């Protein structure tokens, strides 16, 4: 049986990244799992997994992790630039350190992640970049100001990259979820924003399982290389 290609995921230690790691591993792919919480990556217990403690702000660590995994399993065929944080909060009250962290991780971190694999994919004329945006990368919310800014950034970069990479046969898929049940709210420090978010989530009947997002990504990846799902927008039915 042919060996399945290597799949790399940032933010694989929880939530959507973890669910996607499990889905691709169950489909028979070796996986490169990256995040800061090494113990959570190890606890996944996935076969053919290369596990690296990587902060996406660290370009050299990303490159080294990719090189290690590729030496073992061949080229990365899909990179999921998923790692991100949501310091949602009222911009009038938010400490600038929260913007710094979100901007560094959600924008520069995504660029670092793409950079680690893009030239290899172009040279091979094969590969898929999956970019984690959000519904907050398509519409704004008044108490998500900088988070929305970072996700609009991902959206714009993804669309530009898709056009840039299309002639090289590399696919760029942007993922824009609504409310998904993960640990992402742990990053919200603004009590009022957190209370409003939770009230809205309850009012619309709750979030969606991360497994649903993972399955959509796997389905999109498994289409022939010359076919692309340009964007996956998935929300609870009642979410506006
Ligand atoms: P989680 O908090 O469960 O997952 C976030 C992941 O990102 C963790 O694995 C975390 O790992 C990793 N991460 C955070 N900062 C860094 C960093 N500096 N370097 C490397 N890894 C990092 O939440 P989600 O699964 O929900 O979030 C995944 C992505 O989905 C994010 O980009 C988020 O913005 C986006 N999203 C989530 C939605 C939701 O409703 N849940 C909706 C729309 C988009 P560790 O802490 O171990 O480093």
Automatic annotation (TrEMBL):
Q: Which GO terms describe its molecular function?
A: oxidoreductase activity, acting on the CH-OH group of donors, NAD or NADP as acceptor
Q: Per the database record, which ranges form the Ketoreductase domain?
A: 5-182
Single GO cellular component annotation?
Answer: membrane
SMART domains, per database record: PKS_KR (SM00822)
UniProt keyword annotation of Oxidoreductase present: yes
The UniProt keyword set, sorted, is:
Oxidoreductase
**Its family?**
Belongs to the short-chain dehydrogenases/reductases (SDR) family.
Query: Any idea what this protein is called?
Result: Oxidoreductase
Its lineage reads: Bacteria, Pseudomonadati, Pseudomonadota, Alphaproteobacteria, Hyphomicrobiales
């Amino acid at each position: 049986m042919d060996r399945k290609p290597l799949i790399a995921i940032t933010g694989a230690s929880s939530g959507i990244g973890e669910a996607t790691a499990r889905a691709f591993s169950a489909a028979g792919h070796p996986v490169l799992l990256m995040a800061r919480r090494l113990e959570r990556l190890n606890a996944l217990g996935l076969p053919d997994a290369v596990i690296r403690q990587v902060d996406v702000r660290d370009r050299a660590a990303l490159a080294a992790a990719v090189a290690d995994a590729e030496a073992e399993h061949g080229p990365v065929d899909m990179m999921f630039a998923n790692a991100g944080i949501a310091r949602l909060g009222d911009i009038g009250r938010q400490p600038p350190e929260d913007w710094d962290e979100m901007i560094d991780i959600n924008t520069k971190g995504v660029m670092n992640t793409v950079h680690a694999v893009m030239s290899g994919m172009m040279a091979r004329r094969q590969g898929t970049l999956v970019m984690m945006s959000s519904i907050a990368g398509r519409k704004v919310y008044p108490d998500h100001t900088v988070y929305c800014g970072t996700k609009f950034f991902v959206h714009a970069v993804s669309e530009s990259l898709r056009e840039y990479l299309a002639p090289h046969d590399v696919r760029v898929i942007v993922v824009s979820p609504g409310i998904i049940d993960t640990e992402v709210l742990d990053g919200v420090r603004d009590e009022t924003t957190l209370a409003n978010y939770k009230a809205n989530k309850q009012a619309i009947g709750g979030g969606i399982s991360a497994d649903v997002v993972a399955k959509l990504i796997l389905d999109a990846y498994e289409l022939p290389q010359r076919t692309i799902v340009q964007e996956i927008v998935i929300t609870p039915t009642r979410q506006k």
